[in-house]
Design a protein that fits this description.
Blueprint lengths: L1 H12 L6 H29 L1 H4 L3 E3 L7 E3 L3 H30 L2 H19 L2 H21 L3 H17 L6 H27 L9 H9 L11 H17 L9 H20 L5 H5 L3 H5 L3 H32 L17 H7 L2 H16 L5 H23 L3 H24 L2 H10 L1 H11 L1 H4 L7
Antiparallel strand pairs: 1-2
Helix pairs in contact: 2-14, 4-5, 4-8, 4-14, 5-6, 5-9, 6-7, 6-8, 7-8, 11-14, 16-17, 17-18
Keywords: Membrane, Transmembrane, Transmembrane helix
Membrane topology: Multi-pass membrane protein
Family: Belongs to the membrane-bound acyltransferase family. HHAT subfamily.
């Protein structure tokens, strides 16, 4: 009986596949549209509006006389600091590798804490680390004493939203970039640990004190990657067990890591090459009058190419700390999903920044949705949970107009998706599916999915 119910659930979720020839046709259409979009974007940025965006161009650091689009501030800072990041991650990984082999397990943990904090200081500054972990001491002590979730939420959200105004930063754009991210992601670490203590009042802070120091000190999770404290504990304990069992010492374990590193190098230099020829970001940073002067195909092509840059940029930015955490024997969040292959926009939230998704899911959404309520109150709670999640997203990204528009459209899209899912599960809908057949049903769903992708698209 259970098997039949499971088959029914699978049937609800998986309409039959299209014929192979139609799948190949769909791939051909997608690839050709993608290639044409890049061609149109090249034409627009180098011919049609070149004179209006040339102020964004900077001399290339690779080829004399060439120009490169440096209008994306985050990538501009990142490319200046990537060598320093790789150096610090390398020092950190090599040092903890030695610590595990020189000291026993107990002493190796303390050595890793010292290594982590010293490399954070080298990556940012002593003042940055001192301010962040003084704040951590305050919030962690209060949370451990009172075990109220309100304490870490209030303190950490205020820190995230106001840190750029009040905390000290070093001079220099690339140093500012590193310190800003260490402050930001450090606050999320503090929040994750304190919420763990609040959710587990029987757990004494003394019992997780060393693990909390390891969590705060671990360098690859200090910026751009979000990992829950519970997940870090599990990963670190497994790493120690693997070392004791010598199960991670074979060369074969490092082949995927080497392959991952080569892919990251390729995508970094591909992005640098891309910015020498297509200036989609410069167009997006230009006045709306320039965009309004483009026809629909040109505007959509620029938007598509800018989206592809957005994806590859974060493949690299998330990927480099992930690479070194893999080297350390940890399991970081997976890389961002390719936005060109997203059919449900909810997958963007789940799989683009998987660490942020896990944080929102376990620290915001599930705690709100856990209590059982009446059907009427459940609807109100569902809307409140959605508002709370997107409220945290706005605190994280900021409340500028384009972020407000993106969050609002995303909320509308997720609501449409939820309504569609509810309709799909109705018996009358499944009866229509039976009359249409599996192939035609998939075609109808594919068409209707435009409603669940377009509103949430940040380039829409």
């Amino acid at each position: 009986m259970k098997s039949k119910e499971a088959d029914k659930i699978r049937d609800l979720r998986l309409p039959g596949p299209l014929p192979r020839w139609e799948q190949k046709l769909a791939w051909a259409v997608w690839l050709s549209h993608s290639a044409i979009a890049f061609i149109i974007a090249y034409y627009v940025s180098n011919v049609k509006v070149e004179q209006w965006i040339k102020h964004w161009m900077q001399p290339s650091s690779y080829v004399s006389g060439w120009r490169v689009d440096q209008s994306d501030a985050e990538w501009s800072y990142y490319r200046q600091t990537v060598a320093r990041l790789i150096l610090d991650y390398s020092i950190h990984s090599f040092a903890i590798f030695l610590a595990q082999r020189i000291f026993n397990t107990h002493n190796a943990r303390y050595a890793m804490v010292v290594i982590g904090f010293f490399t954070q200081i080298h990556m940012s500054s002593f003042r940055c680390v001192l301010v962040l972990y003084t704040f951590a001491l305050l919030v962690t002590t209060l949370s451990a004493a009172f075990r109220s979730k309100l304490i870490p939420w209030v303190f950490c959200i205020l820190f995230i939203t106001r840190a750029a105004v009040y905390v000290p930063f070093s001079l220099g754009g690339h140093i500012f970039y590193r310190e800003f991210n260490i402050y930001l992601y450090g606050a999320i670490k503090i929040l994750n640990l304190c919420l763990f203590l609040c959710k587990n009042p029987q757990q004494s802070y003394r019992g997780v004190f060393v693990e909390s120091l390891l969590y705060y000190a671990y360098l690859p999770y200090s910026m751009t990657l979000i990992v829950l404290f519970e997940d870090f504990r599990e990963q670190f304990q497994k790493k120690e067990q693997n070392y004791i069992l010598k199960s991670s010492s074979s060369f074969e374990d490092y082949r995927p890591v080497l392959s991952f590193g080569l892919r990251l190098a390729f995508w970094f230099f591909f992005t640098e090459f891309f910015l020498h020829f297509i200036y989609a970001n410069a167009l997006f940073n230009s006045p709306f009058t320039i965009i309004n002067g483009l026809n629909a195909y040109e505007a959509c092509s620029i938007a598509y190419v800018a989206g592809q840059f957005f994806h590859v940029k974060y493949v690299v930015i998330f990927g480099i700390p992930s690479l070194f955490s893999y080297i350390d024997g940890m399991k970081p969040p997976p890389p961002p999903i390719c936005i060109s292959r997203v059919s449900l926009y909810s997958r963007m939230w789940r799989h683009f920044d998987a660490g942020l998704y896990q944080f929102l899911k376990h620290q915001v959404y599930i705690p709100i949705m856990t209590p059982k309520l009446s059907p009427i109150l459940s609807v109100t709670r569902n809307l409140s949970a959605l508002a709370a999640v997107f409220g945290v997203v706005l605190a994280w990204h900021g409340t500028r107009r384009h972020y407000l528009a993106w969050v609002t459209l995303s909320a509308i899209e997720l609501t449409i998706e939820r309504i569609g899912s509810t309709i799909w599960k109705q018996n009358w809908c499944q009866e229509i599916r039976g009359k249409l057949g599996e192939n035609f049903t998939r075609r109808v769903i594919a068409t209707l999915m435009l409603l669940t992708v377009t509103p949430g698209d940040p380039t829409f």
